[in-house]
Amino acid sequence: GAGVSQSPSNKVTEKGKDVELRCDPISGHTALYWYRQSLGQGLEFLIYFQGNSAPDKSGLPSDRFSAERTGGSVSTLTIQRTQQEDSAVYLCASSRTVNYNSPLHFGNGTRLTVT
Amino acid sequence: DAKTTQPTSMDCAEGRAANLPCNHSTISGNEYVYWYRQIHSQGPQYIIHGLKNNETNEMASLIITEDRKSSTLILPHATLRDTAVYYCIVRVARNNDMRFGAGTRLTVKP
Q: For an interface test with B, which of A43, A53, A96, A105 has the most B Cβ atoms less than 10 Å from its Cβ?
């Protein structure tokens, strides 16, 4: 079946511009996660959505980062006034439930380059 | 938080079994052990997970010691396409995220 879809796959932007990254989770998955991975580094948790509950924003690095999930499905991660240190691969994942027995399934990410 | 320790890198001959160890000595009773792998330029791929019992699926087997302080991921017949970074993760019950460490870089050689 269809996996997690992310768009665009690559994004190059100038420092100071805003960017929006999109994630389409697997159909029927109630939990959605955003991570980022800097070059040669591990995954860094950003934000988590579960159904209609308030999102867990504990991983967002600054107030320039925000995310929303409309209708419990598609999610958009927005980065305002981008900085060069924002350059990374932004990964989205979804899971069927929040149960810890429910694996996360990842998309292939959006590679963001801030020039 | 339960932390995992994995070797930085391992080699395996094509066609042989790859056995990837992971130590998680501070794991709690309700925390699952998950394995993912990441091939260059792709997102992490789920492999397998378990709580107490050994698990097997079409990709791999997971062997968890009786005291749950360590586990081994087994790829029974490694192929060149299995070359990747393999992550062992203990899913912490009170957090909503998966904490990825540095993983083990497995290189399958012809």
A: A43
CA dihedral B18, B85, A4, A111 (to 10 degrees): -160
Question: Measured at the alpha carbon of residue A72, what is the angle toward residues A68 and A78, in degrees to the nearest 5?
Answer: 15
Each of the 110 residues of chain B gets a pLDDT tens digit; together they read: 568 999 999 999 999 999 999 999 988 888 899 999 999 889 999 999 999 999 999 999 999 999 999 999 999 999 999 999 999 999 876 666 677 888 999 999 99
- Among all residues of chain A, which has the CA nearest to that of B43? A108
In chain A, which residue's Cα lies nearest the Cα of B42? A108
Cα–Cα distance measured from residue A67 to residue B96, given in angstroms and rounded to the nearest whole number? 16
